[in-house]
Design brief:
Layout lengths: L24 E3 L7 E5 L9 E6 L3 H13 L1 H5 L3 E7 L3 E3 L4 H6 L8 E3 H4 L4 E4 L2 E5 L4 E7 L2 E6 L2 E4 L3 E3 L7 H4 E2 L4 H20 L3 H7 L1 E5 L3 H17 L12 E5 L11 H13 L3 E3 L4 E3 L4 E3 L4 E2 L3 E4 L3 E3 L16 E2 L5 E3 L5 E7 L4 E2 L1 E2 L3 E2 L4 H19 L15 E3 L5 E5 L2 E4 H15 L3 H16 L15 H11 L1
Parallel strand pairs: 2-10, 3-4, 3-11, 4-7, 11-24, 13-20, 14-15, 14-20, 15-16, 22-25
Antiparallel strand pairs: 1-2, 5-6, 8-9, 9-10, 12-21, 17-18, 18-19, 23-24, 26-27, 28-29, 29-30
The structure holds flavin-adenine dinucleotide.
């Protein structure tokens, strides 16, 4: 049977040698030309539990893996079905994107393909467009006019967050994002290309603009990316006799009065001190007003820069607004400490769960948990355990947020880390950060590969060649064909 148009699914209804169902079945039960329905695999005994997980980031994959382990027997006998719907066929582990940009980790090693990680689940590469929880139905975004309906019993929302942008003149034309592997690779190539440009031009203004790098937003993404790239660029200019370290200008613009809002204030203060020691121009309580022509900041500063990276915070995934679930302040799904979605009466909304960046999970007395990978992973594990417990008639347990294990890398051999009630800096903090990052990466295979990257990095010198040409793979060939035509 064909998959609905625009949706990539598993091979179809297949069984392994012991008769275990390995993938979901597309049926046309509700099909009337425009409308498909994905039904569960029906079993002779009935009584199946259908779990729909929306979002395959750290929270979604962790929840799915844990549920897969806990429900192995039910999944293999067809008494349970887990379907995970994710827009990409892989998880992107974003805490490692700054190291991808710095060239310390291979881009392929920070993504975890979902299908091999979830052999007992159905993985759909698609986007959910709306959810009607009162009818326990979700819909896959229509492509070619066809809408796919997904019925479920238990909904696990782990759709995370997306970049929060403002209508800044010139931002769309000149800004770069930093959320995907592609963007991390592209930024690395761009920064290295600026060094090549600065070393070969005779125009002092162009040289100055090429060596000025502006990052807007000082969360984990902005601070990590700037710190890693500054470190890499300082290393790279050893091969550029005409560029001195003081020629490089790094500017970090943050609208609030502190950096790393997702981490503890002491940790953020250490990171700020380290960045300033490295001559990074950190501007707090400042906004980007314009990127048209010159960079214009709200404190009145104007200067030329050829690199503008937008990492200014996140907002919950847009899907949340297309559900009938109660949303809290900031647009996140209001949750109880059991990771169950809170109903209007403050009691658990039956069959609805959420975790990660998209969920407002209580963290008294701070309000709700900050959106970071550490929280997403720990919440997802508790969510999965609670879902299994509630389905078995046992009580759910409260999630107890752990805030003291935060850390952030600030380049090779530099980091800030919170441990045992203290903030640490320097090499020890860096080793601790790497150990934590590795432990949290939700794939053993990827852990080994990232570790191998780090070990190779310690043995050999850093790779600092710009591969900007890979972004225009057809340019050379087109030029050659054009020449031939004339
Ligand atoms: C550059 C960068 C660096 C970071 N560094 C750190 C760090 O050092 N430490 C730290 O703790 N945190 C860090 N973070 C934050 C961390 O990455 C997030 O908190 C974490 O990824 C949240 O996980 P999640 O699963 O909740 O959401 P996400 O990782 O956002 O995953 C959600 C998934 O849902 C999918 N999705 C969304 N909508 C739909 C839909 N409608 N249909 C189907 N799928 C959908 C998305 O494609 C996505 O894959 C960083 C973030 C960035 C951007």
């Amino acid at each position: 049977m064909d998959s609905p148009p625009g949706v990539t699914t598993d091979r179809g209804p297949t069984k392994d040698p012991v008769g275990r169902i390995r993938s979901g079945v597309w049926t046309t039960a509700a099909s009337a030309g425009r409308h498909w329905c994905v039904n569960q695999v029906t079993t002779a005994g009935g009584g199946i539990i259908r779990i729909l997980i929306v979002g395959g980031g750290p929270a979604g994959l962790t929840a799915a893996q844990r549920l897969q382990r806990a429900l192995r027997d039910q999944l293999r006998t067809g008494r349970a079905q887990i379907t995970l719907v994710e827009a990409a066929p892989y998880l992107t582990y974003r805490p490692l994107l700054p190291e991808v940009a710095a060239g310390s980790v291979d881009p392929r090693h920070v993504v975890v393909p979902l299908r091999p990680a979830l052999p007992d689940c159905t993985v759909l590469t698609a986007r959910i467009s709306r959810i009607d929880h009162s009818r326990r139905l979700a819909w896959i975004a229509p492509q070619d006019g066809v809408e796919v309906e997904l019925p479920y019993d238990e909904l696990v929302l782990t759709v995370g967050s997306v970049s929060r942008t403002r209508p800044v003149p010139g931002l769309a034309e000149h800004g770069l994002g930093f959320e995907t592997v592609g963007e991390a690779v592209s930024l690395r190539n761009h920064v290295l290309a600026q060094l090549d440009l600065a070393s070969s031009t005779r125009d002092p203004e162009l040289r100055h603009a090429a060596l000025t790098f502006v990052f807007v937003g000082a969360g984990y993404g902005g601070v990590g990316a700037l710190a890693e790239l500054e470190d890499m660029a300082r290393y790279a200019i050893r091969e550029y006799p005409t560029i001195q370290p003081d020629d490089l200008r790094w500017v970090l613009v943050e609208a609030t009065d502190r950096i790393l809002a997702e981490a503890a204030p002491e940790l953020a203060a250490h990171a700020l001190a380290q960045l300033r020691e490295r001559n990074v121009d950190v501007r707090l309580s400042t906004q980007l007003d314009s990127a048209q022509g010159l960079i214009t900041l709200s404190d009145g500063t104007r200067f030329a820069a050829r690199t503008l990276v937008w990492t200014a915070g996140v907002r919950p995934a847009p899907l949340l607004a297309a559900t009938d679930l109660p949303l809290g302040a900031g647009g996140r799904v209001e949750c109880l400490d059991t990771l169950q979605v809170a109903g209007p009466d403050g009691r658990p909304l039956p069959g609805a769960w959420a975790a990660g960046d998209c969920a407002a999970v209580p963290d008294p007395p701070h309000g709700s948990c900050p959106p970071n990978a550490q929280q997403a992973l720990a919440q997802a594990a508790r969510l999965a355990d609670n879902l299994v417990a509630v389905a078995a008639g046992r009580p759910a347990q409260a999630y107890l947020p752990e805030r003291t294990l935060a850390s952030a890398s600030l380049g090779l051999h530099r980091a800030v880390a919170h441990t045992g009630g203290r903030s640490r800096t320097g090499r020890r903090a860096w080793l601790l950060h790497r150990a934590r990052t590795l432990r949290r990466l939700p794939s053993t295979d990827r852990r080994i590969r990232v570790l191998a990257d780090w070990l190779l990095g310690a043995l050999f010198s850093r790779e600092v060649a710009s591969l900007a040409a890979v972004e225009h793979p057809r340019a050379e060939f087109r030029a050659a064909v054009g020449e031939h035509d004339h």
